[in-house]
Amino acid sequence: MDLKSNHTAPVVADSAPISKSRLGVPSSLLPYSSSGAFSPNLFLTVPRKKNGILDDIRASSLDAMKSSSPPHKKTRDFNNDLVAADTDVAYRTWMVKYPSALTSFEQITNFAKGKRIALFLDYDGTLSPIVDNPDSAFMSNDMRAAVKKVAKCFPTAIISGRSRDKVYEFVGLTDLYYAGSHGMDIMGPVTQFSDDHSNCIRSTDKQGKEVNLFQPAGEFLPMIDEVFNLLVNNTKEIQGAKVENNKFCVSVHYRNVDEKNWTTVAQCVNKVIRSYPRLRLTHGRKVLEVRPVINWDKGKAVTFLLESLGLSNCDNVLPIYVGDDRTDEDAFKVLREGNCGYGILVSSVPKESNAFFSLRDPQEVMEFLKSLVIWKKTTSAL
């Protein structure tokens, strides 16, 4: 199966032979074969153009910014009924390939019987709605209650592009594991690691419980702070632009910037990172993110947390990752290529993905979490 697409939204996709899946999914959803062992080498070799701009990012491309930021579905009126109808048809067609995790819930739980589920959740757009002000991306009390209950049933981790402290402030639950900065700042259970994880140190959480703190990009902290200050200064004249320091990455939000000024935002960011060859630029939903050039992402964070939990390389474990952003594709890809778990994409518009299933919005995510809790209690009572 080839996940490459003619659509404008790019995803990481490799061509690989299909192997028999352990997941028991329909043949049209069979995952790739395993791509090999996790590499401890963190540093990437990133191709660059002569002018210093990242060749694989095209940061100044307005098309790239648009493709990573699909518009929200608008309310129907007389003038856009036809367009809305076409969108509905396209979405229903797309769901043939990425069926709803709610309508496919029995299929998921049938495979989960006798297995230990490990749950991984993105935050923005998954547990909370996408909002104009990123500082106001609060999850509802009902969602918090659902996450709290599901975390009592299964090991659960939040993996976000936000700083770990910020996402913990939003979620406010102690029975979870948190990974901030796209997995570059992980607080997890105490485990003995090999030398491959030399950046892992023993620490304590806010309740005084002993934990492992893993920060593979620790040496970049002064550089990230420096770039943050430069970006704040360089974008201060662009109305609506907001720069957020997420500790190991810097996010430049352009959700509230007039579209005619998006290119100006990208040019400002490029101007800064041109002087920092050890940093790279990636696209998210109406956000440009400056990150260290290391071989680490949300997929690596899932692998690390599974190892921390003693759940790696186990046939009786089913990892499930729920996320909405392009950065979540790295986690979807790890589960798909390893034939070991399910990725669930949260999206109300069609786009190519490495996920197996889909959910429309955070409301459906909450229903899925509640269904998992009910299923767990029902099966435990048998």
Automatic annotation (TrEMBL):
EC annotation from Swiss-Prot or TrEMBL: 3.1.3.12
Names of required cofactors: a divalent metal cation
Single GO BP term: trehalose biosynthetic process
Gene3D superfamilies xrefs: HAD superfamily/HAD-like (3.40.50.1000)
InterPro entries: HAD-like_sf, HAD-SF_hydro_IIB, HAD_sf, OTSB-like, Trehalose_PPase
Keywords: Hydrolase, Stress response
Reactions the enzyme catalyzes: alpha,alpha-trehalose 6-phosphate + H2O = alpha,alpha-trehalose + phosphate
Annotated metabolic or biological route of this protein: Glycan biosynthesis; trehalose biosynthesis
Gene Ontology molecular functions: trehalose-phosphatase activity
Top-level taxon: Eukaryota
Function text: Removes the phosphate from trehalose 6-phosphate to produce free trehalose. Trehalose accumulation in plant may improve abiotic stress tolerance.
Similarity annotation: Belongs to the trehalose phosphatase family.
Protein name, UniProt field: Trehalose 6-phosphate phosphatase
Gene from which the chain derives: LOC111289615
